[in-house]
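User
Please review the sequence:
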Amino acid sequence: MNSKGSTPGPWAIIEDNIEKAREKLEDVDWEYVEGVGLSRVQLRWKRDQLKDEVQRGTLGGFLNRANTALKSFVKIPLLSFLEAVIEYKENVEASIERLN
């Protein structure tokens, strides 16, 4: 556990990567992003799917939907460091599955 008490493992590093991604989104070449499914209709659809899972309260569904978006973001060279976020998420998922 970390200093926050509830988030396992290297959460501080992951949280830092997520914040770094938010900042770097300002520098993204949006023309390229369209090619990896992160603009217009595709991006709105991914966002809506995540919102639906949040409203349903299904953690597993949310994590699966997050994979789709994260894998698209990782294809952008400027955001490739998000691979660490995917690995962290997958490890947390594996721990949850073991509990079940």
Summary: The chain has one domain: 29-99. The chain has five helices and no strands. The chain has a mean pLDDT of 82.
